[in-house]
Description:
There is one protein chain. The model has no long low-confidence stretch (mean pLDDT 89). The protein starts with a helix and ends in an 11-residue tail after the last strand. It is built from one helix and eleven strands, in the order H-E-E-E-E-E-E-E-E-E-E-E. By secondary structure, it is mainly β. It has one helix at 4-21; strands at residues 23-25, 29-36, 46-56, 62-68, 74-79, 83-84, 88-90, 95-98, 103-110, 119-126, 130-138. The protein has a single domain (22-138), classed as PCu(A)C copper chaperone (Immunoglobulin-like, Sandwich). It is globular. Strands 1, 2, 3, 4, 5, 6, 7, 8, 9, 10 and 11 form an eleven-stranded mixed sheet that branches. Bound molecules: copper (II) ion (CU). Copper (II) ion binds at residues 18, 22, 33, 35, 137.
Amino acid sequence: MFRPALLAAAVLLALAPAADAHRITTKTLQIDHPWAGDMTDAKPPFDLAVLMVIRNTGKSVDVLTGASSPHAQRIELRHVSSGPHKEVEIKPGARVELSTKNVYLRVIGFNKVVDAYDYFPVTLNFKRAGAVKIEVQVEDVVLELPNLN
Ligand SMILES: [Cu+2]
């Protein structure tokens, strides 16, 4: 028997813990759910976008200046319309979302075969917090990658 209410509850249960559990915290930063779209069909090397929410829980401004991964040629901060982006400032108490509608991390020359729900390592570089290691989750959704500009 098909029971929509139960199905909806199951979907919520499946989504909520992943989003809650997947958090990286440092003394001054809280990074929630860094993720990338499914690229099961892409042949390495390829580009992908990494998205996340960063909160500054400290008392000073911090600045995301770049990132790297052992599985990528390089990672760039990019603005969806204006291209290469130097840095992302995060004021104390502020919450900044990296997304393909604004500024995102463009992973260039990714060379690992990954399936949905796999993780891969990325190091974020901040002016104050320094190098912060995160694990990016591959989501089971297709994420349209912005054209390079
Ligand atoms: Cu996550």
